[in-house]
Amino acid sequence: MVPPPRSRSGAGRSGAQRGRLRSAEDRGLLESRAMAVPLAELLTAGGLVLHSFNHERTFDRPGAGVTVLFRIQAVDQDGAEITVYAGATTSPAAARGPALRTSLSGTQLFLWLHPRDPLLPDLAWALSPEDLARDVFAPGTSPAGVGVRVTGYRPLRRAVVHASSGLDGVYLKVVLPGQAEELRHRHRLLAAAAVPAAALRPGPAHRSAVVLEQLTGTPLLRGLAAGSHGLSAGDLTGLLDELPAAALDLRRRPAWAERSRAYGQAAAALLPGQRMRVQALAAGVESLVAELDPGPVVPVHGDFYEGNLLAAAGRITGVLDVDGLGPGHRVDDLACFIGHLAVLARLSPDSALPGELAAFQAGFESAAAAAGSSPAALNARAAGVALSLVPGARAGRLDRESNALARLEAAEHLLEQAQGRAA
Predict the structure, then answer these.
(1) Measured between alpha carbons, how far is 301 from 343 in angstroms, rounded to an integer?
(2) Which sign does the torsion angle of CA 146, 147, 150, 155 carry?
(3) pLDDT tens-digit readout, 130-189
């Protein structure tokens, strides 16, 4: 049964309140069984019949709408049951590309079948063995020998695909049209510095996709969880010291903690029963970020955390996701690492992660002070990073709400530490 239209008047509410309400309503609608109606419409346009569907993941980007991915069982024209994936979003930006435009309960929606992301026109190319055999791998490569898999996907924003042919493997980073050359430039800057970022592989210049060589090493998270990585806080700050000065000429992106109010709105939409806690947290972060000196502007990675670092034999062997390379504050790179590690430690209290958090936090507090900022600023900004991770909570060992609450608690503890140091 399709729910009745929802009121969008928002009379008597502030802009922030209306934003939180709308985000929560959109999230509830897109995650509901009522999505059977627009999904069936999408499949019909492709000659398929909906059999069943499951919610895979929700992306709630502050100010950019709610997007949901679905896993669908459908029946094709031959009567065979097949699995397909689809996306649905409330973001009006999706109207710029090929997407089904429809509405449900008074909400405008845009839907597409994977890999036809309306804002990533070259995602389909990056997942085509035929195209990659011709455009990326050695001449004469058979498409039958090319394997592809998606390793990361942010709908309407970017995707990462691993492709292989025999022993030869590459990563393809699919970005918005017009952004590929900017990303290539960042990789060229890092190639000239002592930073182990992926080397560029030749590929079609007209594609909105960057082809990158594979790096050695394993994700740093494994070593952190086991306490076996052999790295110190000084090793990581030393790596940041090697970021090229030319990065100061690039476009600056806001730090995660500088958007705490927007991430608070997204977190409150996921945890409506904790709205007051979330609001207090976001306000506390915002206040300290404005009050405490972040230090001078220097080259920064922009998304410096364990998921973007590879390690082997006690050293960093790979630095990933360099889209955010540019001018910023060293304390924000350090805070990004601590914010993520604090969430991981909260979610896995029986691992080595809590001890790793304590060690890196102590080391980075000293590094923040040496960089012209302070331990209080580090922890306040780390709290903002942890808050930004709340909306992305997923069901796993914990259900989604419990996962989100653990992230919220990690952020609150970091803010308490910041407030104690700032007093």
Answers:
(1) 20
(2) positive
(3) 999 999 999 999 999 999 999 999 999 999 999 999 999 999 999 999 999 999 999 999
The pTM is what? 0.90
Helix, strand or coil for residue 234? helix
* Backbone φ, ψ for residue 52 (5° rounding): -160, 165
Q: Which residues pair with 66 in a beta bridge?
A: 60
Q: How far apart are CA 281 and CA 407, in angstroms?
A: 12
Q: What is the separation of C-alpha 323 from the centre of its chain, rounded to a whole number of angstroms?
A: 12
Interval 221-238: pLDDT, tens: 999 999 999 999 999 999
Distance CA 94, CA 166 (A): 37
Which strands, in side-by-side order, build the sheet including 309-312?
Answer: 218-219, 309-312, 315-319
* Residue pLDDT, tens place only, 378-415: 999 999 999 999 999 988 889 999 999 999 999 999 99
The three-class DSSP label of residue 59 is strand
Output the DSSP codes for 184-219: HHHHHHHHTTT--BPPB----TTSSEEEEE---SEE
Structure tokens at 59: 């992306």
The predicted pLDDT at position 64 comes to 82
Burial (CB count <10 Å: 0-12, 13-18, 19+), residue 204: middle
By the 8 A CB rule, do 60 and 80 touch? no
Hey, what are 99's tokens?
């997407």
**Tokens in use for 23?**
């985000």
pLDDT classification of 423: cutoffs 50, 70, 90: confident
- DSSP at 398: S
Length of the chain: 423
Domains and CATH numbers, the chain: 15-113 (no CATH), 123-213 (3.30.200), 218-422 (3.90.1200)
Helix (H), strand (E) at residue 316: strand 315-319
Long-range pairs for 284-287 at CB < 8 Å and ≥24 separation?
A: 284/380, 284/383, 284/415, 284/419, 285/257, 285/260, 285/380, 285/381, 285/383, 285/384, 285/387, 285/411, 285/415, 286/260, 286/261
Place of tokens 């079609």: 204
From CA 83, how far away is CA 77, in angstroms rounded? 14
Beta strands in 76-144 (DSSP E): 81-89, 100-104, 107-113
